[in-house]
Amino acid sequence: MSETAAHQESAAAPGAPEEAITSKNFHIQVVATSLSKCGDQLTKPGLILTWMLASLGAPAAAIGALAPVREAGSLLPQIAIGEAVMRRPIRKGFWSLGAALQGICVLSMAAIAVSMEARPASWTIVGLLAGFSVARGVCSVTSKDLLGRTVPKGRRGRLTGISASVSGLASVVVALALAILDTSSVSQRLFVWLLGLAAIFWLTAALTMAGLDESPGKTTDSRSFLSSLGAIPRLLQSNAPFRNFCISRGLLAGTVLSMPFYVVLAHEATGGRLANLGALMVVGGASTALSSAIWGRLADRDSRLTLGAAGISAGAVGLATAAASLIDLAPAPATWTYSLLFFLIGIAHAGVRQGRKTYLVDMGKEQDRARLVAVSNTLIGVIVLCGGGVGFLGEMIGAGGIVLIFALLGMLGGALALRLPRTSK
Asked: I want to staple 220 with a disulfide (CB 3.0 to 4.6 A). Which of 86, 140, 286, 424 is the partner?
């Protein structure tokens, strides 16, 4: 029996030493992923980076490129990343490298923001965001592989739920801190400090993950990037559960794509009041902090049911939001109404994230988990880019109409998720 097989066999047997290793790996990944997600909260393209570029006087094209560059840069290269990961028996180094590169990119953004003129600085920051996003994709692929190989079923959803709750709490703290600052005192240096703190989070996360007790995993034969792309249709054709999961996840991508339009509706209804922006920041972070751990535990019991329930719930919130957009509300009631709706869609989105992450990790086997993650994320990257084009319909059907479209797609995706085979314990 090989050393790897012996280690895996012993991992299945109960025992104090093995349980200690499992507990150690659980806590290391909780800390590392929590730090990484806190860094994410401090560099949100739709919030922190957008405000920073706006304060620089950046062109609208650069600001508009932030969200697509981050999502596409993270998701589209994951086929190549997945193949590279699967060729190495020890993979924690990939995660640490990705986290460290994210920290370096963010530190570079902070330096650029205070040392260059507006236009070159803004496009340089967009370029650094592209590099940041590729590094984020490395962590995305590797984290699910490490989670599946070092943490047993029944604890995975809890782990991701705890880290998401921690990051949501961090978002609330940042939102409250910004809310109590006098707006006239908010300068470019404030955002530089936020990016610097985010960089510290990522660099610390990289060091933390390096301490993971990882046994060698199964490796696969090397493939070229083109052959990997060519294998996608065959994989989707031969693996019906995975194909249906990708379809469901694609439909549910409308949940995250719709969230900026909630903000647009709130802005229109309240006349762009800064107090409403602060309220949305607080409830958005609170929804993640309060619900993610609960969703994680539910996903450990039945990730398919969690994904379906969250998707249908997101669709219901979208329908309510589209209806609210037809009512002419005064600013004060509008603030409360859209804050509540944003809170509810945040809860539903957290459920979608926890359900689909846990389902995909539980579905995959050691030898193909990283590949399934990479294929799924690449497909979603394409869908997100295409779905982003729906925003051009805004002038014709309004933000409420766009929310309605995404709500219907989300309900359809949730219904399809309920028909997936169960993979959880």
From this structure: 86
